[in-house]
Amino acid sequence: MSDKEFKLCYYDGTFFWFSQRDPKEIFGDDWNDRPHECNAGEPYSEFGPFKKIAVDGVELRAASYGYENSPFSAQDINEMNIPWVTSSPYADVKFGLLAGTTYEECIKIFLLAGAEVYIKMEVV
Questions:
Q1: CA-to-CA distance for 110 and 117, rounded, in angstroms?
Q2: Backbone angles phi, psi at 85, to 5 degrees
Q3: Is residue 108 classed as helix, strand or coil in its secondary structure?
Q4: Please, are residues 31 and 74 in contact by the beta-carbon 8 Å criterion?
Q5: Which of 31, 46, 83, 117 fits a 20 to 30 Å CA distance from 24?
Q6: 90, burial (CB in 10 Å: exposed 0-12, middle 13-18, buried 19+)
Q7: Spatial CA neighbour of 84 closest among 28, 25, 18, 21
Q8: Which DSSP string do the residues of 32-50 spell out, in sequence order?
Q9: Nearest Cα residue to 18 out of 50, 62, 53
Q10: Is the CB of residue 115 less than 8 Å from the CB of residue 56?
């Protein structure tokens, strides 16, 4: 199974979640509720397996950035081409990570931006 097959489907503020399913087909508890940062739970296990990474050393701005309560649900982000995160406007390497960005592409972007990438290993 290639890492290229795993696509970004969720960001919980710590981990970036990747699944082999189309992000528009993945759901979790309260994924249709706004704001996503106060309501959305992890993706349901039936949409896995999942790969997860965390990053450090780069400033990230989540979809909720600039809002007291974001007007987006997790479902909105996965369907509407709203980035799960963007880089700071002051960063040397600017990016926006949309749902569907591959696992491999995300790692490459983070490394180019100078981040440290931590892979969450889980027993399956």
A1: 7
A2: -145, 155
A3: helix
A4: yes
A5: 117
A6: exposed
A7: 18
A8: TSSSHHHH--PBPGGG--E
A9: 50
A10: yes
The encoded tokens of residue 31 equal: 């994924």
Per-residue burial over 63-76, b if 16 or more Cβ lie within 10 Å, else e, is bbeeeeebebbbbb
Domain spans, the chain: 3-120
pLDDT-derived band at 63 (thresholds 50, 70, 90) equals confident
pLDDT tens, 87-121? 999 999 999 999 999 999 999 999 999 999 999 98
Average pLDDT over residues 40-65: 93
